[in-house]
Specification:
Layout: E1 6-12, E2 18-24, H1 28-34, E3 36-38, E4 62-74, E5 83-91, H2 102-117, E6 120-131, H3 144-149, H4 153-163, E7 168-173, E8 179-184, E9 187-188, H5 190-209, E10 214-215, E11 229-236, H6 255-266, H7 268-275, H8 281-284, E12 297-299, E13 306-308, H9 317-320, E14 323-328, H10 334-350, H11 367-375, H12 380-384, H13 386-402, H14 408-418
Parallel strand pairs: 1-5, 12-13
Antiparallel strand pairs: 1-2, 3-4, 4-5, 6-8, 6-9, 6-10, 6-11, 7-8, 11-14, 13-14
Helix pairs in contact: 2-10, 4-5, 6-10, 7-10, 7-11, 11-13
The structure holds glutamic acid (GLU) and magnesium ion.
Length: 419
Amino acid sequence: MNREPLIMVCTCEMAGRVRGKGFPAVDLPSRMRRGVGWVPTNTMISAFGPIYATPFGTGGDLILVPDAAAEVNVDFGDGGATEHFFLGDIRELDGTAWACCPRDFLRRGLAALKAETGLELVSAFEHEFVYTGVEDAPGAAYSLDAYRRQGVFGEALIAALRAAGTEPDSFMAEYGARQFEVVVDPALGVAAADRAVIVREMARAVAQRMGHRAIFSPILEPTGTGNGVHIHFSFRDAEGRPVMHDPAGPQGLSAVAAKFVGGVMHHLPALCAITAPSTVSYIRMRPNRWAPTHATLASQDRGASLRVCPVLPGGDVAKQFNVEYRCADAAASPYLALGALVWAGVDGIRQNRALPAGDGPPLPASLAAALDALEATREAAEWFGAAHLQAYLMHKTGELTSLAGLDEHEQCDRYAATY
Ligand code: GLU
Ligand code: MG
């Protein structure tokens, strides 16, 4: 069959799904400039497909413009179509950033951090997911047996991640039934969130080629094990020096890191509405799941919302020292999740927010409660801009309403089918 190569340009908006449009590869030079057509209401497409509500109606025209720094071009060597896409920015027709562009939300947060401190953010996302190509075997957690059962999925995933430029770090059989984890190296600024999008899509692409799925939904059944997304972060100064660590600081945090973390702690309930944005995210964050239940900061404790990570023997302490945000999952767009984290941290720096003493309050117990916290957060209107915040709240309220009357099993099934 005759074939002509296609390229897609994609975004990852409020629903955390990767959407976009394709074009013939020969048109790439002009598409790099003018992008593809996009419309405001696309950001209101729910995780499940329907548009439940939209402030934009059928009006408006936007462009989705590829970013040359975020190209994925992976040939799986199986004769199938090459996975060739760009991640990009949503812009007005005059080329300025659209008010609800998720990448711009993150980019503006990073610019605010730089303006306040001169610092850049380095971050890495760890992803847990369920691979359906293996059966649930007893005692499989971390086992060599479970590792072996996935056959060549892991090797194909690592090859795809490397070809996509994401510098894979590790792959393992996780604790849950059929659960695996993949980690890629940290990256600066927006590139780290791009990597998170790419990791999810490469896992889905490899699994699909094997006739299976990689499911990133926060939890697949109410009594199961959650799929977390853990975001590790630290700072670099203008000379590239790490500035996260001070052995004399609280929990080993430098003064600027302590204020940043203080802001994240202060805003945790509201942040959950963005980083854990599904109803089942709050089934994942229940006791005894190695997922957070309270707004806590702790050294080397995987039950905390924010974990100060250990430095491995022989490592460069200042360089390795990082904090892990554990209240995220893959229902969230990585741009919105990382952006929200950065904006909350910037607020901590601006307001000189101290680290809380002792254990914090419980996290919101439901998406509805988290959305209430976000709505009550005065600063959030500045982070998002009023129109973006209102659209986000409307999007998530529509999602909540669509699940009304479904029990937890049914909700898990809905999300497992989409993520
Ligand atoms: N699966 C847990 C979560 O939902 C995390 C387990 C771990 O510490 O790796 O966050
Ligand atoms: Mg894990």
